Amino acid sequence: MRFALPARWLASSVLAGLMTPAVAGSPPTATPLDAPGAVMVHLFEWRWDDVARECERVLGPAGVSAVQVSPPNEHIALGPVDGAWWARYQPVSYRLDSRSGNRAAFADMVTRCRAAGVGVVVDAVINHMAGIGEGEGIAGTRYTPFQYGALYRHEDFHHCGRHGDDSIRNYQDRWEVQHCHLVGLADLATEKPAVRERIRHYLQTLLDLGIAGFRIDAAKHIQPEDIAAILDGLDGAPYVFQEVIDMGNEPITVQDYLANGDVTEFRYGPRLSRAFMSGDLARLHDLGNAQGWAPSERALVFIDNHDTQRGHGAGGMVMTFGSGKRYTLGRLFMLAWPYGTPRLMSSYRFEDTDQGPPHLPGNWKTLPVYTADGADRCDNEHWVCEHRQPAVLAMVGFRQAVGDAPVTHWQAGGESRIAFSRGERGFIAFNRDDTDWTATLTTGLSSGTYQNLLGDDVLRVDDTGHVHVTVPANGAVALRYDRPAAANDS
Q1: Which of 21, 290, 361, 378 is the most exposed place for a label (fewest CB within 10 A)?
Q2: How far apart are CA 125 and CA 362, in angstroms?
Q3: Distance CA 418, CA 352 (A)
């Protein structure tokens, strides 16, 4: 059958079934993060032992290039269950102790993921420390206003003197955005050599453990030259991408940070989401070409992230795991379209936007994804695990196969039905309509029979490169040049 999305997809499928390839052969090899075809998965708030097992059982076999993990440093502790998700973004020290695990567990995860061909990208919170106040970190480090153990003291922070509380109010003022406190968080004076050295030591510790790179959190609140100076002293060549929320209406832009590494392109998710929510897919023919956007080879793109799926951040409405079939189709498009390096979100179920990850009753410990008997809690009630959807994993392979091939043969059957080729390497068609779409379409592929990557049917491409296909309602069909049908299927 062709790939038709169910009304509600549940992530509790058997892993062996998820990883059954369309054609027998060796597991794919991950594409480096700085090469066309790379894909990242964000396992938000997962424990280190669970991340390691996911690398071995799902991400590595699927050919995923890297996994982004939550900040590994010691963070604030909030009561008996360790509170909100944002606790992870309030550092107390650079000890590798968090609710995801300790240093030994982190190091083991990195080693196992690397062995599975998956790089680990750490979410590095280096713009600030915990909110100004006093308390204790999850590993016992005490802090008071602008004093975090023996790590930082008052003179290591910005005290901008604005608005009576040193907080950012005016995002049109570059200096204020980069020298005042973001939502009450103690803003580090990253222009000071001593502060840079402490941050650099933390990042180097992670590199020495074998990680592949960093996501620099809140990068737009750090002067680009400060980031450059911190990275310049590192031993190694990490992949770096910087969180720069640039919606085109502020003085700080993604272009300001390109010299340091890749950047997040926050305009991508809302634009793609609007197209799939409205059904106007034809508007996507030039996605990524708008003025001011990051160049494709430097853009990290996503539909949703941990902020935007909770209504935080910028850019307006985005699709999330709660958007059902539209969200899945959007992710398939993101993996088929050549702009940027895509990152897939893997979430947990939440009812409140502050809600932390699933946890064990009566304490702060995060509920494991994998159970003691080798099963898992990807049940859409605890961990959603939307990255495991078979169609999504199939499109990771599609992206690898097409590499840097250009978009060709763009075709539209009205606003809600589109198809295009990736040179001579791949072809995909989307139908966002509520009725099937039967058409003869140009594929760019050589003549022959091909396995539909998103189903179990076989399609025939004729000598002119055309295929006669029925794309199911709210579904998709994908072909790649190296997935011919078995001889007995032709």
Answers
A1: 361
A2: 28
A3: 37
Among 336, 351, 309, 367, CA closest to 45:
367
CB 114, CB 121: distance < 8 Å: no
**188: β partners:** 157
Mean pLDDT, the chain, integer: 91
Per-residue pLDDT tens over the stretch 274-327: 999 999 999 999 999 999 999 999 999 999 999 999 988 766 789 999 999 999
Band (pLDDT 50/70/90 cuts) for residue 157 is very high
Strand partners, 300: 264, 341
pLDDT one-digit tens code per residue, 9-28:
223 333 333 333 333 345 56
Q: Judging by DSSP bridges, how do beta strands 262-264 and 119-124 pair with one another?
A: unpaired
Structure tokens that stand for 268 in this block: 């991508």
Residue 380 pLDDT level (bands cut at 50, 70, 90): confident
Instruction: Evaluate whether 310 touches 356 at the Cβ level (below 8 Å).
Output: no
Q: Mind listing the pLDDT tens digit for each residue in 46-86? A: 999 999 999 999 999 999 999 999 999 999 987 654 579 99
Question: What are the tokens at 417?
Answer: 């039905």
CA distances from 306 to 275, 293, 423 (A): 21, 22, 34
Known catalytic residues? 217, 243
Q: What is the identity of the amino acid at 76?
A: I
User: 238 - beta bridge partners?
Assistant: none
Question: Which residue from 473, 456, 453, 393 is spatially nearest to 30, judged by alpha carbons?
Answer: 393
Instruction: Quote the CA–CA distance of 401 and 276 in Å, as a whole number.
Output: 25
Q: Which residue bears the tokens 């990042």?
A: 203
Whole-prediction pTM: 0.93
- Rounded-to-integer distance, Cα 136 and Cα 142, Å: 4
Alpha helices in 45-102, H assignment, sequence order:
48-54, 60-62
End-to-end CA distance of the chain: 15
- In which residue are the tokens 């060709």 written? 408
Residues 431/452, Cβ–Cβ less than 8 Å: no
- Integer Cα distance of 330 and 343 in angstroms: 12
Distances (CA, A) of 387 to 9, 67, 182, 201, 274: 12, 11, 31, 33, 21
The answer to whether the CB of 472 falls within 8 A of the CB of 4 is: yes
